[in-house]
Amino acid sequence: MTPLFSPGMPLPAPDAVTGEFWKACREHRLVVQKCVACGTHRFSPGPVCSECHSFDYVLAESRGVGEVFTYTIVHHVSHPATRAAVPYNAVVVRLADCGGVKLVSNLVDCDNDDIHVGMLVELAWDDVTAEVTLPRFKRLSRSNIGPETLK
Ligand SMILES: [Zn+2]
After folding, report:
1. Which residue in 50, 71, 77, 144 has the most C-beta neighbors within 10 A?
2. Span from the CA of 57 to the centroid of ligand 1 (angstroms)
3. Domain range annotation of the chain
């Protein structure tokens, strides 16, 4: 994948709460915490369920298919590493599974003018470094469209 941003873009710093999420990303698996007590999925990773305050959770693996919930086109250079990338998109993707949790990401291989709310998308793993892989998205390919896509 062509790098979205120039070298120097700040990268995630995994910690005790987010480490297993970032480890799964390196393995090209998108995982979402699911509360053992009440079944609520949550994203981004956190230590406690916002619904029932339980600390117990399991990791659910997402198929990585969803839709554009909302998006924006960024024209402002907010960091030197974005200078060559503007205008670039920032999207909020609602997953089709895992309780429909939402992730902030970017769409790749897509003209900004073609992005629209409701657009079906799928994961496009971006191995930014040897240690960091980011879940970006691309337009859903027809081979991945099934009747269960957005249940
Ligand atoms: Zn809960």
Report:
1. 71
2. 8
3. 19-142
